[in-house]
Structure formats: C-alpha cells, structure tokens
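I'll show a record.
***
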Amino acid sequence: MTDVVIEKKGHVAIVKIEHMKAMNALSTDMYAQLEEAFDELAKDLDNVYAVVLTGSSTVNKKGKTVNSFVAGADISEMATKTCEEGKLFGNESNRVCWKIENFKRPVIAAINGFCLGGGCELAMSCDIRLASENATFGQPEVGLGITPGFGGTQRLARLVGMGMAKQLVYSALNIKADEALRIGLVNAVYTQEELMPAALKLAGKIAKNAPIAVRNCKKAINGGISLPIEKAVEVEEKLFGDCFETHDQVEGMGCFLSREKPKPKPVFTNN
C-alpha cells in the first residue's frame, strides 16, 4: 500500500489516506487499499481496540495548506463507465463501507477539510465523526448526473432524518462543519490543530475498556437499530449474555468488587 498508511499508537490504529494529488479521491485502487488496510487490522484485534480514519494535507502552488478527508469518488475514472461497470463500482465501494461499518472495533472518522460524495459516504460508515472547523460536507452527485451510490441515500437519512437528507441530496449543496454538527452528521467540531489529538484521546478512552464488550455494543446498536424494539432487545440480550465468563468480564467485575486500596484497575485482554 502506498496511498493508505497504517500507524499504531498503543491499542489505537490510525488509517491515513495519502493521495493528495487527487485530493484523496476514491478510485477502484484506493478502495482496494482501504479494504486491504482494514483486512490487515482485522488480523490484529488482540492489539487493536480502536481505529481513527483520517485524510492528509498538502501545500498548493500559492503556499497554502489544503486539507482533505476524501473529496469524493474519482470522477475521471467514473466518467466513461458503462451501466454495468457503474453497478460493479458501486458494489465494490459499498463492500468496503460495509466492512468499515461492521469492523469489530469502533472506527472514528477525523474529518479534515473536504468530505464530499464518496468521502461523506465513507465517513458515515464510521461509528463516530469528528470534524475540523474547515471541513466541508455534501452529496453533490445529482449535479454530475448520478445518485449517491455508496450508501449516501441510506446512511444520511438514518443519521440526520429523511427531510434533511433529501434536502442535501436533492440540492447537491455543501455544508460547513457547524451546520453538520447542528443536524447531527458529526459528533463534535474542533480547530484543525485540535482535531487529531481529540480523535486520539477519544480512541484512547474507548481502548481502555473491555474490547469484547465494546464490540458487542457496536453489534447491538448496528444490528438492532432497524428492528422493532422487541426484536432489538433480543439482540442486546444475547450479546449481553455472551460477555459473561470471558476474562474481561471476570477481570472488570473482580476489580470493581475488590476491597484492596487503592482499588486495582482492570487489565483487559480481548479474551
């Protein structure tokens, strides 16, 4: 991999998209590299408890720093696709977004700069979205003669409501970070300098907890959200029960009940 880089800090993995000559636009090759990165992390779940996905920056000819999470899908690649090729591209891209959405660890999107089209769809596949104050969001596809194709019409409506999703998709208008926060598209907004430290701090807090329990919480929320409540709580009940008799459950409750002073802190091991 050359355009998608993995860095690890303790139990937190950072996946960084570094293809700024195209503003981190997502081509077939870029999606393949993202998939490869998450497949690699999936083999190391005993050491990776949380993931931060982010973009990169470059300095333009005027000496100005330009940031981009992902500026969209690669239009130069899409422009000449046939109907069947378009469906295949959508299928391949959706597979990567689905893999991230269902990754066995929480994924935090640290959104710096442009987050448009396929980039916004990629961010919506993550569990949590944190944005820098210069971030720009949008689904501009109808202005290009296509629909969002990588989950945009579906995840956006689930996150911000059907009315607001329709407004953004039909109009192809971009919104700034403060508006994205207001409508619930992102969880928080930071200065550019604060974004990555904030994302890593949150990832670190998540990584301190029992990874099996966090994984099961993610499965319960993702799996239950579209079910009737009586079925959704059944999903939760099973995942709740699955936590018992694990090392992490015994360790966590044992430390809580300990009469030692100072009270010992649990050491979780993903077992």
Observations:
- The chain has a mean pLDDT of 94.
- The chain is about 45% helix and 20% strand.
